[in-house]
Amino acid sequence: MAISSFFDNLSLFFPAGERFFVAAVRAHRHSVSDPEVAEAVRVFCAQEGIHGREHARYNEQLRRHGYPAQEMERRVARLLRRVSRVTPRRWRLAATCALEHFTALMAHLLLSNPRLLEGAHPQMAALWRWHAAEENEHKAVAFDVYQSAGGGYLERTGVMIAATVIFWAKVLEHQLRLMHSSGTLWSWREHWSLIRFLLLEPGGMGQLVWLYLDYFRPGFHPWDLDNRELLEAWRREVQRTGLQPPAGA
Ligand SMILES: [Fe+2]
Ligand SMILES: [Fe+2]
């Protein structure tokens, strides 16, 4: 229960989060001169738009099951509106790079360890794998645009620190709210099963800490972690299982 609520937790960020990413990248596309990056920006915006739409559907299912999904989505949207009001435009792109680093690392984990989605409904598992594959595919787009826009080390890492604190505080808040509405907030067994799932069995969150810290290395680039083989493995799996990405993706 706590494990599925962790995936639900993340899903609640996506509709507003993806809109924020697209707006931040679009606002700087004029600074891109490389036609390959310009094309990647177009694909990025299309992919994130479809992710937002699919997760809005997912979240609607949560609402139907009695979770305060709509209210939680609104809170995320409000927070991002407030961030947009008080920060310079390029900081919003730096925040997008920071959050895309998180999605890329979680995607890396999901694609490299199929056991993380064992027991999930096949359609849900397919949705998460598809989203993970596309996050992996476009993980450097915001970063490349940020570099074209003249973004530098101190700004990039300073914004990453702020984004880390705000994002994980919000993840914790979401987790507690979801567990409260499912009546498992005071179940230590549920908390333990989530911690065990994330850190021990099948685990993997621990190894992400080192990959996360790599962002603070001067000269870092998202493709320094070359995991294109995971994308290929996902494509082969889609062909084998016939579980297609959502229509229009
Ligand atoms: Fe996405
Ligand atoms: Fe993304």
Query: Which ligands occur here?
Result: fe (ii) ion
Mean pLDDT: 94
Estimated helix fraction = over 70%
Give the number of DSSP strands.
0
Spans of 5+ residues with little confidence (pLDDT < 50)? none
Q: Quick one: biggest sheet?
A: none
Cα radius of gyration in angstroms: 18 Å
Report on the architecture of this protein.
With 249 residues, this protein is an all-alpha fold. The protein has one domain (2-241). The protein contains 11 helices and no strands. Helix 3 packs across helix 7 (141-148), helix 5 runs antiparallel to helix 10 (205-213) and helix 6 packs antiparallel against helix 11. The relative contact order is 0.16. The model has no long low-confidence stretch (mean pLDDT 94). Bound molecules: fe (ii) ion (2 copies). One fe (ii) ion (FE2) binds next to helix 3 and helix 6.
In short:
The protein is mainly α and 249 residues long. The protein has helices at residues 2-11, 14-26, 35-64, 69-86, 89-112, 122-137, 141-148, 153-181, 188-199, 205-213, 228-241.
Considering the chains and any ligands shown, give keywords for the structure.
249 residues, mainly alpha, 11 helices, globular, binds fe (ii) ion
Secondary structure elements and their pairing?
Layout: H1 2-11, H2 14-26, H3 35-64, H4 69-86, H5 89-112, H6 122-137, H7 141-148, H8 153-181, H9 188-199, H10 205-213, H11 228-241
Helix pairs in contact: 1-8, 2-3, 2-4, 2-5, 3-7, 5-6, 5-7, 5-8, 5-10, 6-11
This protein binds fe (ii) ion (2 copies).
One fe (ii) ion is lined by residues 48, 100, 103, 135, 138.
